[in-house]
């Protein structure tokens, strides 16, 4: 089947759909190609945390923050390997992106929190579970507008170039070949390659072998767009920068089942019941420390204040009661009882909590350098849940400029080609802050859509 449109977007995750909606709002006819049977990609599986500094919600909670602080933490948190201009555009447009989502009907909770490896309380949480709020909001917009079409089960395979300008894409759907001609150009938004074990091994430099490490990623995160972009001359950067989290489910690698409710009120202990790291640190720092522990295995430990009732849910819409019933979380009326259930040394666990509670009282930093605290772990019942390292995000990818235009190896724009989301590189450096991915994909998805609609 052959189609004609203004803008074709490849990939129906958060970045692609933001680009599609934004291109349409800016006057373009849009077709989205999604290779899976449904929209959402990794975005819909994410915890939903969206960093934005200087938001009115922070002000209402008395949280001090600024766009400069968000910039500095993002830049330094990636070891200064990110492009400062791209980071500046990200942090300046993060809160406006939340307002844009709200203008499309998306709802966020009032409370702002610190997400794992986010380093600061600036994460905004959607009011519906996981990343569903983003995808459903875009889907509603698409349903209400005729000039955006989504082709599911349709895999993009190759870009079409006419007279030096990217002008469409060839792919395959359930009923055969699909060709889309795009007057304005193509937005690449196929996500990262966290589910492509060969590529992970190929580019891995800073971790031990990851052959047996599971991933949080959906099976479609295979890096398809990178090869397509490279064929037309795109510059790929930072592919060796792989993000692992210390909080994968031991059986599946997924984030589900994680009992933490924000960073401040929980500790991690190893199989001996000892703490081993600043649990408010960067994701790479925490995961590297975890890899040095026995069986690379940790327990998240917290108290009742995180789960006031058995029906209280975690960030993944699971109640603590059901997690306990499934054997994925454990409960004790005392720390000693909890220690026995999870088979760690009770004296060590009691001491770890005592030391943590002392640091809460003083505000730290504690012996691990931790400074993010809120309340003590002192109210029974106490809960613990097991976690292991998991591959989460690929920071490297296609080099873009602040208009989300794709650059070639000489730093020149490739006409008609735009990219946004996890497929891009150069923003997060060696380590992405928790909560920055949703901000990134929304900000740059929106920009890519605008640029493509304007045929920049
Ligand atoms: P991002 O957060 O950058 O939006 P996601 O993982 O959420 O990334 O979304 C990327 C989407 O792109 C996924 O839904 C994935 O299935 C889709 N995708 C990946 N490769 C292709 C391809 N070759 N053709 C069409 N869609 C693709």
Automatic annotation (TrEMBL):
One of its GO terms (cellular component) is membrane. One of its GO terms (molecular function) is FMN binding. Its EC number is 1.3.99.33. Keywords: FAD, Flavoprotein, Oxidoreductase. It catalyses: dihydrourocanate + A = urocanate + AH2. It is an enzyme of class 1 (oxidoreductase). Its cofactor is FAD; FMN. Binds 1 FAD per subunit. Belongs to the FAD-dependent oxidoreductase 2 family. FRD/SDH subfamily. This is Urocanate reductase. The lineage of its organism: Bacteria, Bacillati, Bacillota, Clostridia, Peptostreptococcales.
């Amino acid at each position: 089947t052959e189609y004609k449109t203004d803008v074709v977007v490849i990939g129906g995750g958060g970045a692609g759909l933001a680009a599609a909606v934004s291109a349409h709002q800016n006057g373009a006819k849009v077709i989205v190609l999604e290779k899976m049977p449904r929209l959402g990609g990794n975005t819909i599986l994410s915890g939903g945390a969206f960093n934005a500094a200087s938001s009115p919600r922070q002000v209402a909670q008395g949280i001090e923050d600024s766009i400069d602080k968000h910039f500095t933490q993002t830049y330094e948190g990636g070891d200064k390997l990110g492009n400062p201009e791209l980071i500046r555009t990200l942090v300046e447009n993060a809160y406006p992106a939340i307002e844009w989502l709200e203008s499309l009907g998306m709802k966020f909770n009032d409370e702002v929190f610190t997400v794992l490896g986010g380093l600061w309380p600036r994460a905004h949480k959607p009011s519906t579970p996981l990343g569903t709020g983003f995808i459903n909001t875009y889907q509603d917009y698409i349903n209400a507008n005729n000039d955006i079409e989504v082709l599911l089960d349709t895999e993009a395979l190759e870009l079409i170039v006419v007279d030096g300008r990217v002008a469409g894409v060839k792919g395959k759907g359930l009923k055969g070949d699909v060709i889309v001609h795009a007057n304005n150009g193509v937005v690449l938004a196929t996500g990262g390659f966290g589910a492509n074990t060969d590529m992970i091994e190929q580019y891995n430099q800073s971790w031990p072998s990851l052959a047996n490490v599971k991933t949080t990623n959906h099976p479609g995160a295979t890096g398809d767009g990178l090869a397509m972009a490279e064929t037309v001359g795109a510059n790929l950067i930072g592919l060796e920068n792989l993000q692992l989290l210390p909080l994968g489910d031991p059986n599946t690698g997924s984030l589900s089942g994680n009992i933490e409710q924000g960073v401040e009120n929980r500790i991690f202990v190893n199989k001996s019941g000892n703490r081993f790291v600043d649990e408010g640190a960067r994701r790479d720092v925490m995961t590297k420390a975890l890899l040095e522990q026995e069986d690379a295995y940790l327990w998240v430990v917290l108290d009742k204040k995180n789960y006031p009732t058995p029906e209280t849910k975690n960030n993944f819409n699971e109640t603590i009661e059901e997690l306990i019933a499934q054997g994925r979380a454990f409960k004790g009326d005392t720390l000693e009882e909890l220690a026995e259930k999870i088979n760690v040394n009770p004296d060590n666990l009691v001491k770890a909590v005592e030391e943590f509670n002392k640091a809460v009282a003083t505000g730290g930093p504690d012996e691990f350098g931790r400074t993010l605290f809120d309340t003590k772990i002192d109210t029974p019942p106490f809960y613990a849940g097991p976690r292991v390292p998991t591959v989460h995000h690929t920071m490297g990818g296609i080099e873009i400029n602040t208009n989300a235009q794709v650059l070639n190896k000489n730093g020149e724009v490739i006409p008609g080609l735009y990219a946004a989301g996890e497929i891009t590189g150069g923003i997060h450096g060696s380590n992405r802050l928790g909560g920055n991915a949703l901000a990134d994909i929304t900000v740059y998805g929106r920009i890519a859509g605008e640029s493509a609609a304007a045929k920049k």
